[in-house]
Amino acid sequence: MDVVVLPTAADVAAHAAGVVADRIAAQPALVLGVATGSSPVGIYRELARRRREEGLDLSRLECFALDEYVGLPGHDPHSYAAYLRREVADPFGLSAERVHVPDGVRADLEGAAQDYEQSIAVAGGIDLQILGIGTNGHIGFNEPLSALSSRTRVLALSAQTRADNARFFDAPDDVPTHCLTQGLGTILEARQLLLVAQGERKAQAVAAAVEGPVAARCPASVLQFHRRTTIVVDEAAASRL
Ligand code: GLP
């Protein structure tokens, strides 16, 4: 596991975007796993800038979301499908069918989870997975005590995650109670992992993930098992290492 500590959040975004851009330059049809939340936004904006100003070709990417809320249709601006249209598909010049998101409004959610695993397999697996980390150590929406070998499935969100994500909604009660998320086993199958974290509020989770025991109480600690993982953090997020 490589850990890169940089002074600021802007440095984290620039460095991580460079890692992604180098992979895309070598392999334009990269299968890219895209996290949502605030952490990766700087990466997506830097990649879009390189596309506009430097001609980086993003049009052949195939993208897979990590997770989606249950019950929010794709036209709801709070859904991760809408987030990925705003931050990835449109600025990258990608057609909608190149950005896959689990179907959180299907009646048969378990079937939607299995179909999602299948669509990743059909694409040949994920080459590079971008990750954020929750304050409780979750990756995707794999909350503490998720099985380390878990697959894409329906999960209840923890009270802490719902409180953390309330800032994206009009009212705390509007945060969905359930999600579909790639499992920890699914994430570990990506060929390369790139986790970014910024700010003091992530420091404890980052320390547990990097230096703690591999344990279900910190799902991100499972990254210690992966052969090709890079963690890029600012000094605040690294402050407990
Ligand atoms: C969210 C997402 C994760 C994300 C994490 C951190 O709930 N499901 O994919 O990495 O929690 O969010 P943020 O980057 O907004 O701090």
Automatic annotation (TrEMBL):
Instruction: Give an example GO molecular function.
Output: glucosamine-6-phosphate deaminase activity
Q: Which GO terms describe its biological process?
A: carbohydrate metabolic process; glucosamine catabolic process; N-acetylglucosamine catabolic process; N-acetylneuraminate catabolic process
One GO CC annotation: cytoplasm
- Residue ranges of every copy of the Glucosamine/galactosamine-6-phosphate isomerase domain listed in the record: 9-229
In the UniProt record, does the keyword Hydrolase occur?
Answer: yes
What is the enzyme's main class?
Answer: hydrolase
Q: Which InterPro entries match?
A: Glc/Gal-6P_isomerase, Glucosamine6P_isomerase, Glucosamine6P_isomerase_CS, NagB/RpiA_transferase-like
Q: In which pathway does it act?
A: Amino-sugar metabolism; N-acetylneuraminate degradation; D-fructose 6-phosphate from N-acetylneuraminate: step 5/5
Q: What keyword terms does UniProt attach to this protein?
A: Carbohydrate metabolism, Hydrolase
Q: What is its EC number?
A: 3.5.99.6
Q: Does this entry carry the keyword Glycoprotein?
A: no
Catalytic activity reported: alpha-D-glucosamine 6-phosphate + H2O = beta-D-fructose 6-phosphate + NH4(+)
SUPFAM superfamilies, per database record = NagB/RpiA/CoA transferase-like (SSF100950)
Question: A single Pfam family, by name?
Answer: Glucosamine_iso
Residues of the active site are 67 (proton acceptor), 136 (for ring-opening step), 138 (proton acceptor), 143 (for ring-opening step)
Outline what the protein does: Catalyzes the reversible isomerization-deamination of glucosamine 6-phosphate (GlcN6P) to form fructose 6-phosphate (Fru6P) and ammonium ion.
Q: Which NCBIfam families match?
A: nagB, PRK00443.1-4
Tell me which family the UniProt entry assigns to this protein: Belongs to the glucosamine/galactosamine-6-phosphate isomerase family. NagB subfamily.
Q: What is this protein called?
A: Glucosamine-6-phosphate deaminase
